[in-house]
Amino acid sequence: MESVGGAVIGREREQNVLSEFVTAPGGRALVLRGDAGVGKSALLDHVVDLANAHQHRVVRATGVEAESELPFAGLHQILYPLSSHIDQLDDAHRRVFDVVFGRGESSPPSVMTLGIAVLDLLSLAASPKPLMVVLDDGQWLDAASTEVCGFVGRRLTGSSVRLVVGLRSNVPSGFDTAALSELAVPTLSAHASEQLLDARHPGLDARIRRLVLDEARGNALALLELPPYVRGGREGHGPESVLGFTGVTLPQRLQQMYGARIKGLGDSVRTELLRGALDGVEAGSTAGHTRGTRYRMLDVDEAAACGLLDIDAASGAFVFRHPLVRSTVVQMATPNERRAAHAVLARLHRDDLERRATHLAASTVDPDEEAAAALEAAADSATLRGGALAAVAWLTRAAELSESHGERSRRLGSAAYVAGHSGLLGQAQQLIRSDTAPGSHDSPASVIASGYVALFEDGDVRSSQRQVFAAIESMRDEGVREPDETLTRLIDLLLAINQYAGDTAAWERTHELLAPLGDLVSPHSRIYQDAWGDVVRRGPGVRQRVERAFADRHRLEPWDITRLGVAAYHVDTLSQYRPLIQRSADREAETGALADAMTMLHLVMLDQIAVGEWDEAERTGQRSLELTTAHRHGLFVQHTRAYLGLLAALRGQVERARALQATVDAWARPRGVGFLTEITDAIGTTAALAEGDYEAAYLHAIGITPPGTFQPYAHQASRTLLDLVEAALHTGRAEQARAHALAAQHAGLPGISPRLALTTYGALAMTTADPAEADRMYQRAETHPAATHFPFELARVHLAHGIHLRHTQGRKAARHTLTLAAHTFERLGSTTWTDRAHAELRTAGAPSPASSAHLAALTWQERRIADLAAGGLTNKEIGERMHLSPRTVSSHLYRVFPKLGITSRAALRDALGKLSSDQNA
């Protein structure tokens, strides 16, 4: 403490800031940052005193280094005192907390989802009186908790909640990038140092006083602790010799001082201190809630008497006076003493899977299957909760403790597998190389690790494909009889490589290889086999199988969510699963399966493109590009650029689209990455259509698939159906256009996906010579239940339909349909298609709609929110549908009202109806 008689010495500036922080209206967050021992804790105590004086409720928590790898451990410590309020939240938010704290089986939430739930909980707790949350040693908070606290801290404005965090300057922390207001806590001035020293240690010998001031250099803890140490120096040595260790830092000297006190304690007291130090600080009563249980130090009054411990006023439990005391206790213990303490703590936490495994592993030296199995189970739990990085460490330790070489190899393989999916490609290879048994370099696990590294880093589909084929054939020939995790991983890797390669021969060989394996191939792998390869021929029923697989989502590991999401993309049902995929991407990008997070971002972007959220898709693509570039995943870098190029082409940004097309094609084509070269052909087709260069569009389109058929194992073949048909029609190739539309119908594309139903019916309408059939097909396309989920394709059908109506029924009959097309293209931001639709409107005898400028003022997202609000949905319901927080929905509506010239939600329906009437006039 640097206070005397309740006054904090030498901190007038800081006290003024903190006083304003506590008393000013509205919620806010503040970080106190300073060196160890500088006095942050005293200032936090001062904040608590101020908060109590102003009738705030105070919740205190302390980051614990021993818990820094346990997902959500810190958040639980912060929120546990507020747990009585959780039952007052709605079902959705209660389920969020159940998952985080191990009481439920739903999918783990994203930072945003959990952050919103925490904000609601804090606001509810602050309704009777303001709430102050005080977090000391925030640098030791686990990454997941830090992310949530940062999210919450940035959004407290307007609430009655305040958050203050103490951080140590020289320890990196997730709070470093949280963008919260900061207050630097420097060392005390010379005058304040003298005041504190004289107040707490009056009557010091002048020489000792001067020496302490020189050594402490304004560090409050040193000013308080050094005098007794110097005065009680070793017999026959002066005070200078006690402190005169060359090259020893002040924290080290303080630890030496604490060490001297610890050494003088009895054995039983040191044992109690060690158990407490290894398990973290007491966080209050946790009866019935195992995750909060801590070791409670007993019979340690001797340690408190010599200044090593304090008593927590709330719980009455002994707590360490300073983190340096805790670390000194651990450092002074022998390895055997630490292992014995960990064994006791493992028994204490027998009902907490992750905490028990951590202590059990630390207490064990020789191979122990019980400890290894506990660590493996903890790794599985961490993976499901977004803690794949912790899972790698636990699986590696489980391998070290395995009693048989087979189990050791299996666990090392699992560690390498999770490491590869976590973006730790080098570590994945090192883990496999550490398995030194003869022939281990050719083991299935090594093939899996090296295959993912080759694929992710450089898009090497050829050599990795050969190795995986050989490994699967080897396991088959060895007579595997039961479902096997390693075999499943090999199969899933082969299917991923095949998808990127897009090679017909490899896919056919894969089908031949997997067919006789029967139930040895998992149901999920069968979905991937059918969806990722040739969805035209193998896609019927995939949509329903994907839906059933996602129904058990709480058991899905991040790579399962990713792969099933890719399957959903191929059958155009991504929107159903985007909330889960978005949450998972946000969660895994921090401490989880990073490589899967990259693919999840691709999936989110693809769905944003599909449903017309193109600005959001651009932002998602840029985020993905930054992430993939930073981690040097060459394949994903180019994959992201391909989608950005496709989006640019859709928007009419032709020059940018072609630049990205050239970059991706130059990288992918020599490597044989057919998945990406098909996308570059699709970029070329889309860009040419945007420019009205239909001959070039046709040549690009037939590079993907010939007219009248759908090239096997070409994923863009069905996706570019409308492109090829329109390009063919505009270049006088009506026969080829009709043949292609009929091929889509005969292949049963409408039964595979809703998007393919829309485009097939549209293509049939565009190519028939029978006006009545055209009307029927346009009607089927435009009234399809899912048509509005694909606004760009629907607008193209509207445009073609309008032209057809002008030719068959006259100009007036065409205007409504052409207006729908024009407004959709305008909202999407597809400039060239907008111009084309307006030109058709003028040809139909109508000027560009007078209300177009008003409607264009609404972004696509604002228009969707306005439509949903006019339909009676609440902000919460709109947020769930559009994957936004209710607060974001509210802010969008406040921007919409003045654009529409209204002041209330009740006026939305009439305003939007008037717009539609104006547009259809």
Strand-helix topology:
Layout: E1 3-4, E2 7-8, H1 12-23, E3 28-34, H2 40-53, E4 57-62, H3 73-79, H4 91-100, H5 111-125, E5 131-136, H6 143-153, E6 161-168, E7 181-184, H7 190-200, H8 206-216, H9 220-231, H10 239-243, H11 250-263, H12 267-279, H13 301-305, E8 309-311, E9 318-320, H14 323-332, H15 335-348, H16 353-362, H17 369-384, H18 388-400, H19 405-421, H20 425-433, H21 444-458, H22 461-477, H23 485-501, H24 504-514, H25 523-532, H26 535-538, H27 542-551, H28 558-570, H29 578-591, H30 594-611, H31 614-630, H32 634-650, H33 654-671, H34 674-691, H35 694-704, H36 716-719, H37 721-730, H38 734-746, H39 754-767, H40 771-782, H41 791-809, H42 811-828, H43 831-843, H44 852-857, H45 860-870, H46 875-882, H47 886-900, H48 908-920
Parallel strand pairs: 3-6, 3-7, 4-5, 5-6
Antiparallel strand pairs: 1-2, 8-9
Helix pairs in contact: 1-2, 3-6, 4-5, 5-6, 8-9, 11-14, 12-14, 12-15, 15-16, 16-17, 17-18, 18-19, 19-20, 19-21, 20-21, 21-22, 21-23, 22-23, 23-24, 23-25, 25-27, 25-28, 27-28, 28-29, 28-30, 29-30, 30-31, 30-32, 31-32, 32-33, 32-34, 33-34, 34-35, 35-37, 37-38, 37-39, 38-39, 39-40, 39-41, 40-41, ...
Structure description:
- This protein is mainly α and 921 residues long.
- Among the domains are: 3-184, P-loop containing nucleotide triphosphate hydrolases (Rossmann fold, 3-Layer(aba) Sandwich); 190-244; 862-920, Arc Repressor Mutant, subunit A, CATH 1.10.10.10.
- It is 65% helix and 4% strand.
- The chain is built from 48 helices and nine strands.
- The strands form three sheets. The chain has a five-stranded parallel β-sheet, with helices on both faces. A two-stranded antiparallel sheet has the order 1-2. A two-stranded antiparallel ribbon has the order 8-9.
- Strand 5 (131-136), helix 6 (143-153) and strand 6 form a beta-alpha-beta unit.
- Helix 30 packs antiparallel against helix 31 (614-630) and helix 35 crosses helix 37.
- The longest helix is centred in the last third of the chain and has 19 residues, at 791-809.
- Residues 851-916 form the HTH luxR-type domain.
